[in-house]
Every structure is written in C-alpha cells, then in structure tokens.
Amino acid sequence: MNTMRVAQVSAAGGKFEIVERELPQPGPGHVRITVEAAGICHSDAGFVHAGFPGVQFPLVTGHEVAGRIDSLGEGVTGWQVGDRVEVGWFGGHCGHCLPCREGDFIDCQNLQVPGWAYPGGFADAMVAPDTALSRIPDGLPAALAAPLGCAGVTTFNALRHSSARPGDLVAVLGVGGLGHLGVQYANQFGFDTVAIARGRDKEPLARELGARHYIDSSAANVAEALQALGGARVVLATAANSDAMSATVDGLRHRGQLIVLGVTPEPLQISPLQLIGGSRSVHGHPSGTAQDIQDTMTFSAQTGVKPMVETVPLEEVDDAFQRMLSGAARFRMVLTTGN
Q: Which CATH superfamily is domain 162-284 in?
C-alpha cells in the first residue's frame, strides 16, 4: 500500500476529515508504525484549537498510539519489524538542552510531542523516532495500551515518584479520564486510597476501582474530611479545576504533597501560610519518558489495571472527539484502524 488514511484538521478549530496521504518512509533513527489504536486525549483539543505555540495545519494529532513496527529507518537497533510498540506524549527529545544533558528527558525544552512536532497517530500509520518507542507487553490489547501512553503514565509516574509509601493516605481528586486510572494505581501501590468527586453517583465505581474512602465534594468540606481520616500524604489532583485543587491543601498532613496533573489556566488559591504550616508542598508533574511508559504498561498488565475505554473506528473521529470534549466519554475514547 502506497497511501494511508489520516484524520486531519485543516484549520484551527475545524472538524476532522478523513483524507489519503502518501505513506511516509522512516528516515535515519526512525521507524514506521502501523497504527492499531490511538487514544483521544483532552490535550488534543489544545492542538486542534491552536492552544499550543507553533501548531501547524493541516494537523494530524494523536499521542496515545499503539501498533506494530512495519519499517525500520537506517541506524535503528534493538527493534524489529513486527514489534508491538507504543508512542505517547513523549515522542522524542533533543538531547542537547540543559534538562536533556542532566538526563531529565521529559522536561526537554524541545520535547517532540506527536501531533505537535510531527504527524501523530490519528492515522493508519505514523513515523516516530526510535527513542520514543515503548514495548507493549504480551497480552495487553492495543486499545487498552494506547491510553497508557499519556493518561496512564502521568498518574502512574506521579504516584510512584511521590513521597507516599504503602499504607499512607492518598487522595485522588477526580474520577475521570486520569482519575479512574489514578485510583487503580493508588490501590495497587498499597495506599489507603481516597477518591474525591462531585456527587454520590461515582462512589460505586470509585470503590470498585479500589478506593477505600469516598468524599463527595459537593456535600462535604474536603479538607476537613481528609483530616478526619488522618490527613493525606498525597493528593493527586487529576480534575482540571483550580478551586477544587486549592480546597484540598488544608487536608494534607505535615509534609504532605499536592501533585497537580489537571491542566487549567486558572491560578491556584493557596496562601503561603497554608504551605509553611506543616511544611506542605505543591508541584506539577508531567507525563513520562518512553521507559516510564513501558514501566506503566508492564505494571498495568501485571496488576490488572485497565483504562475504561470506548472504541470507535477512525472514520468516526469527529464524533468521538466531540464526545470527549463534552465529558460524556467513560472514560477514554480510542480510535481503531482495523489494522
């Protein structure tokens, strides 16, 4: 086949349309991947609406991509045609900026995010640097692997690098696309897991996912409820709501951490006194490198952590994208190509 289908957006804020493009050839240090599944992430909306600098149109986005290598570029070693691979938010790094020289590749100042730096995975095939590849474990279906390249690694990595240890009280704010994974990972890490969400309707699901406690933020003072449980060592803030995040700070125990994952432009409302008293801290957490993604998939396969997905064929991408934007998805929309 010399052509492939891609789902592209022709102009900022436009709709997705399926078009044919010439099948790309991988250059040195790159591979071509036959895409089997691609997750739709809320960050894709930032690309579609030109919310990130330098986004070019027509745009092919998609940074939660699972498939198989079908062609190797010159100089690629350690990978073979037919290998099952994932490409996530981390789509390559420059290797020469200060974070890269310090080995902090996820904070690369020239991070190559698929769909931003090069055409992403809303397509039959894509080309990516071999440094971006993660090996998908046997037995993990492509549709379940795909969301782990962004939503999965973000929550997994944030928790495993936090100060929390087995038995500590850890709260997950939000039980949505990120949060439903965060609750599962927190439970599997052995944390005393709290789920925080608005209303009682998500409580049964939160407990099914592994939460031992549930706080309805519309009916209770979240900070007081956390302190009644002993105070949270960590609050993993997955909900993109600055007020909801800020409301958890007084629920942290001494030296507790608020880890911010939910993306929103609104500022947090936190006073210095809230942080100084109790030596509390607030910090943001990015996604993870290719090895972090591989670790996430391996851990998930071993422990049974699974994203809840709705799969739709590539040609229905615009409807699936709108479903994600509306908040109706439960919880990750995944495009499948039939490859």
A: NAD(P)-binding Rossmann-like Domain (3.40.50.720)
